[in-house]
UniProtKB/TrEMBL annotation:
This is Epoxyqueuosine reductase. The gene is queG. It catalyses: epoxyqueuosine(34) in tRNA + AH2 = queuosine(34) in tRNA + A + H2O. It comes from Thiobacter aerophilum. The keyword Nucleus does not apply. [4Fe-4S] cluster 1 binds at C203, C206, C209, C263.
Length: 361
């Protein structure tokens, strides 16, 4: 996230409609697949956010409750904000192994497609900063702040308002020409740019995402209980994974894409050929036993520049132990689990014991 630049009087006579068109063009040149502009009024979304937090569905993500309604009030988060420039960047790696094939192979670890390459925070932030500099060259100094999933920002709602898509029943943004395999980023600005109209909802009566969720985390259309979500459990959750949910996690060791894989709109997704998002370390289908053997130093070295690194080695091993417990019992699986039966971490040991018990050992 960038720091807020000092406000300065805008040069008179700016054609903001022309500037908005230029921003879209620059965005495309920087690799964004879509650019839209929204105002800051999120009143309609605030009630839903408040109810979701009150129900405790954010789990251990205390930062969500801590910021509360600030998420729904961009002009309070960044005083002076008049508009939000919202961008979309496709990330589905073109060369990755077929995700369904990986999920169907319990000997392999499934890593959410967004995390197979370079950390998207760095990629988007860098390009949003470049976009802001281009705007400054055209409009003179202006106030702005860049966000990429890095602060209390209702990214999906802002992108919806900016016309980039509609909110699916799994709560992700959906686009008719891009599905949902993309990242979102924002520039909060004091430029009074013309806003884009939102698009209409095209989910209809489809419930595919709700029905496919392994843990039943999509408890109602447009409502996800994070406490049951595999993405939350493998990434945000710091402690022991609830035992009742472990068998349902299968071989998913970092995130979960099931709701996206089943969505009919993802037939129209555009694979990314951006080098930053291509597969690193063979994580599009690596053997669980080999990943479980990584030392803490190997974890840090191999995953430098990856979003996965932030969960740390301990949670990485916790997640893989669960997957090994769900895998067919083979000498290699049993040997891998027993190799960490005396791991220094009580969290890892607990999940190893559970996994061995699953295999009757």
């Amino acid at each position: 996230m960038s720091s807020m630049h000092d406000s300065a009087s805008l040069a008179s006579g700016i054609d903001f409609a022309h500037l908005a068109a230029r921003i879209r063009q620059w965005g495309k040149e920087l690799g964004f697949s879509a650019v839209g502009i929204a105002d800051t009024d999120l009143t309609a979304a605030e009630a839903g956010l408040t109810a979701w937090l009150a129900a405790g569905m954010h789990g251990e993500m205390d930062y969500m409750a801590r910021h509360g309604t600030l998420r729904a009030r961009p002009a309070e988060l960044v005083p002076g904000t008049l508009r939000v420039i919202s961008v979309r960047m496709d990330y589905l790696p073109a060369s990755a192994r077929d995700p369904q094939a990986v999920l169907a192979d319990p000997q392999c670890g499934y890593v959410s497609r967004y995390a197979l390459g370079r950390d998207y925070h760095k990629v988007l932030r860098s390009r949003l900063q470049r976009l802001a500099r281009l705007i400054a060259q055209e409009a003179g100094r202006f106030s702005y702040r860049v966000f990429t999933d890095s602060a209390p920002v209702m990214e999906v709602e802002l992108a919806r308002k900016a016309g980039l898509g509609w909110r699916g029943k799994h709560t992700l943004l959906l686009s008719r020409n891009g599905g949902s395999w993309f990242f979102l980023g924002e520039i909060f600005t004091d430029l009074p740019l013309p806003v884009d109209p939102p698009t209409t909802d095209h989910c209809g009566s489809c419930r595919a995402c709700m029905e496919v969720c392994p843990t039943g985390a999509i408890v109602a259309p447009y409502v996800v209980d994070a406490r049951r979500c595999i993405s939350y459990l493998t990434i945000e959750h710091k402690g022991a994974i609830p035992e009742a949910l472990r068998p349902r996690m299968g071989n998913r060791i970092y995130g979960c894409d099931d709701c996206q894989l089943t969505c009919p709109w993802n037939r129209f997704a555009t694979p990314s050929r951006d080098a930053d998002f291509q597969v690193r370390n063979g994580l599009d289908g690596a053997a669980l036993t080999s990943l479980f053997a990584w030392s803490a130093a190997e974890f840090e070295t191999r995953l430098a520049g990856s979003a996965i690194r932030r969960i740390g080695h301990e949670r990485w091993l916790r997640n893989i132990a669960v997957a090994l417990g769900n895998a067919p019992m083979t000498p290699a699986v049993v040997s891998a689990l027993r190799s960490r039966a005396h791991d220094p971490s009580p969290l890892v040991r607990e999940h190893v014991v559970w996994a061995l018990r699953r295999h009757g050992l």
